[in-house]
Amino acid sequence: MAFESLTERLQNAFSKLRKKGKISESDLKSAMREIRLALLDADVNFTVVKNFVKTVRDKAIGADVLDGLNPTQQIVKIVNDELVKVMGDSAVGLNKSPKIPTIIMMVGLQGAGKTTTAGKLALKLKNEQKARPLMIAGDVYRPAAIDQLVQVGQQIDVPVFQLGTDVDPVEIVRQGLQKAQEENNDYVIIDTAGRLQIDEKLMDELSRIKDLAHPNEILLVVDAMTGQNAVNTAEGFNNQLDVTGIVLTKLDGDTRGGAALSIRAVTGKPIKFIGQGEKMKDLDVFHPDRMASRILGMGDMLTLIEKTQKEYDDKQAQDMTEKIRENSFDFNDFVDQMDQMQNMGSMEDIMKMIPGMANNPAMKNVNIDPKDMSHMKAIVMSMTPAEREDPDLLNPSRRRRIAGGSGRPVVEVNRMIKQFGQMKKMMNQMSKGNFNGMEGMLGKGVSGRLSKLAMNSMVRKGKKRKKKRMKKNKRNK
Amino acid sequence: MSIFGRRKKKKLEQQALEEQQALAKQAKEKPVAEKPAEEKSDAPVEEKAPEVPINPQAATTEQNKEVDRYNRGLEKSRRTFGQKLADLFVNFSGVDDDFYDDLEETLIGADVGFETAVQISDEVREEIESKHVTDQKVISNLIVSKLVSLYTRNGTTEDNHLVFATEGPSVFLFVGVNGVGKTTSIGKLANRFKKRGKKVLLAACDTFRAGAIEQLQEWGKRDGVPVVAGPEKSDPAAVVFDAVQKAKKENYDLVLVDTAGRLQNKVNLMNELDKMRRVITREIPHAPQEILLVLDATTGQNAMNQAKVFKETTEVTGIILTKLDGTAKGGIVLAIRNQLHLSVKYVGLGEQVDDLSPFSPKDFVDGLFSDFLETSK
């Protein structure tokens, strides 16, 4: 996950601070140096780093951290606030035109992911707003770029307007807009060819498209792995086209994503979306505050909750809690849950969102193979309905049969049944608000404490809700 | 059901293959008629860069053009680097902590890589403190000499030639993350080798990204080189198998294998690459002769991770650095060499078909510093 290394380094810096009861000026200085190096190592532009560290230092000194009761926490807060400030204060949505169509233009360097993002954005609009977007294929230079957009369009069932590669892109856009007018499309997404910001001829072409289409939104697509150069790119495009927003792509890699920090700081333009995967639905709204708390290893509970809500329907969730409480959670529910989890994205991503997990050393080398899930499912599917409901039935002979049926070794079947038992036990405990077994899972130090706080508050909230529910039930009775 | 599905797929592949072969035949017949047979006999076993030209006269002008383009393309990278070092001393007032911070920033700003920058800065600091140097010129020379020694420390002789098989087809596998320019580099290289009289075959193993197969086929058409392709979303290892079979049967000199872009932290996709490599080695021992990692020059620190992980899974033998035109900084060449001992074999300098040049790290580094040394004198 992006930003991981940054998290690690910042935490190192803070844990050094924590080791002493009181911090001196020189401690603060070395902590600032760590922060500075961490940010530079994360590809944040050095001018941005300079300002950032200076502000943090000034604030830390100004806030009397040196005599404070818990200086570490104060510095964490200052760094966090400052990070959020650099990345923009809150999530920014798409600019919309007062009357249809809203025109969105995608620009950027070669290979940044413009075409893919255009497709993802169209799908997002279609799914979330029931929009009817039209995509215009304006990349006449790269071989098969139009084919790519057409195929993307087919995948997500969105029409693509194209005139082949022999027509001037400006003309393609003109005719495409006309078509959108005729067909009453509410969004038009213009895909353009990748270009360097110093290529005058091609940049001029973009300006002409801009003058013609008057786009409501010019999205600069930037590869999150870009180094110091990100700032030049952003400045170059911004100066000539006055872009309205940024899309960061390939954030699912292990890049530290310093580009996110620097681009906003240098251009002042908001980061609107982030691309986090190769599937068409992997485009998310960028939340600066959430990203900042992720950087600081405080987890990203909000995104996790939002994701869960999207995939989980309420009634089912209630049934599930009921079942856990009654201790009647069985293999059928297990499979249901696995399906839902798979819909939410890869296990690793989900784990990283849980506070304290992002930099838990135990989690570092965990690579959860998506096939593991399928294997588990296959094992459950090879059980008889009676076995699924009552795991106690599973004697060695039955287990051998299941192993044969699912094509997995017996050890794996045994392991899975054992895991299921443990999971059931843990869930039961958790539903009673007992976290004793999990203590060790949360990291040590600041992050560990923070995550424990977060966990506890979640549990408290859960209990409150439960009480409310019980009351309601009583009243209804 | 699944057996039927597989048979049907096989059939489809067979058809596609036959069509390809027919195309290849057409494409093949022409050049063979024009070119004398002697040419094959002097095909070099191991390519010596610059490659042995067929027609000396045409080649010299060609070479000059290439050198020109090469210099022009890299000029910017060099200038920014020299400029940066020179800028460092504009506000030079004395050696203090800020100076080392600035030095680190300058080096990082030139994308020499974080670790390299810190390493150099630490070494310079040590030297300055032990010798009590205060003179600006001495310090600037010290920095440059550190950079140069960093370069020579890892050996100056370095084979950045591409390795070809002594007999039978050579296979080059192209790997890298998404959007770095793998397909484009293959298109450019295919053109280059075809011009030098090699019989080239392309394998479209990016079966994942929309339009990727078409993109390679378009390059194939432009270069007049046949392309082996399978249906979309099919197993890339199957496509590579077909391509290798075809190359063996029809005596191709060179197979360039395009793969889907993948982020290095996706374990399953990396395993898929390894499978492709195994399939190639099984069919032709000693192949693939080259596994070329394509890196985007604008990538920051992550380039190191990419190189490291790809090297671990697929035994990368060399690097193609793309998009080095524009404002990209050349410092990354130093970092890659310093930390990974991988040599950059080719650099991409533009969008035209011949904008890909063999790369000599030594010349490049010499260029970086000679400019700076002149400005500081």
Automatic annotation (TrEMBL), chain A:
It comes from Pediococcus damnosus. NCBIfam families: ffh. Residues 100-408 form the AAA+ ATPase domain. SUPFAM superfamilies: P-loop containing nucleoside triphosphate hydrolases, Signal peptide-binding domain. Its EC number is 3.6.5.4. GO terms for cellular component: signal recognition particle. The keyword Coiled coil does not apply. Pfam families: SRP54, SRP54_N, SRP_SPB. One of its GO terms (molecular function) is GTP binding. Residues 454-477 are annotated as: Disordered. Keywords: Cytoplasm, GTP-binding, Hydrolase, Nucleotide-binding, Ribonucleoprotein, RNA-binding, Signal recognition particle. Residues 101-297 form the SRP54-type proteins GTP-binding domain. Its main location: cytoplasm. Part of the signal recognition particle protein translocation system, which is composed of SRP and FtsY. Residues 460-477 have a biased composition (Basic residues). GTP binds at residues 108-115, 191-195, 249-252. Involved in targeting and insertion of nascent membrane proteins into the cytoplasmic membrane. Binds to the hydrophobic signal sequence of the ribosome-nascent chain (RNC) as it emerges from the ribosomes. The SRP-RNC complex is then targeted to the cytoplasmic membrane where it interacts with the SRP receptor FtsY. It catalyses: GTP + H2O = GDP + phosphate + H(+). One of its GO terms (biological process) is SRP-dependent cotranslational protein targeting to membrane. It is an enzyme of class 3 (hydrolase). Residues 2-87 form the Signal recognition particle SRP54 helical bundle domain. Belongs to the GTP-binding SRP family. SRP54 subfamily. This is Signal recognition particle protein. Composed of three domains: the N-terminal N domain, which is responsible for interactions with the ribosome, the central G domain, which binds GTP, and the C-terminal M domain, which binds the RNA and the signal sequence of the RNC. The lineage of its organism: Bacteria, Bacillati, Bacillota, Bacilli, Lactobacillales. Signal peptide: none annotated.
From TrEMBL, chain B:
It is found in: Cell membrane; Cytoplasm. Residues 70-151 form the Signal recognition particle SRP54 helical bundle domain. Residues 168-347 form the AAA+ ATPase domain. GO terms for molecular function: GTP binding; GTPase activity; signal recognition particle binding. GTP binds at residues 176-183, 258-262, 322-325. Keywords: Cell membrane, Cytoplasm, GTP-binding, Hydrolase, Membrane, Nucleotide-binding, Receptor. Residues 169-370 form the SRP54-type proteins GTP-binding domain. It catalyses: GTP + H2O = GDP + phosphate + H(+). GO terms for cellular component: cytoplasm; plasma membrane. It comes from the Bacteria. One of its GO terms (biological process) is SRP-dependent cotranslational protein targeting to membrane. Its EC number is 3.6.5.4. Residues 14-25 have a biased composition (Low complexity). It is a peripheral membrane protein. Coiled coil: none annotated. Involved in targeting and insertion of nascent membrane proteins into the cytoplasmic membrane. Acts as a receptor for the complex formed by the signal recognition particle (SRP) and the ribosome-nascent chain (RNC). PANTHER family: SIGNAL RECOGNITION PARTICLE RECEPTOR SUBUNIT ALPHA. This is Signal recognition particle receptor FtsY. It comes from Pediococcus damnosus. The gene is ftsY.
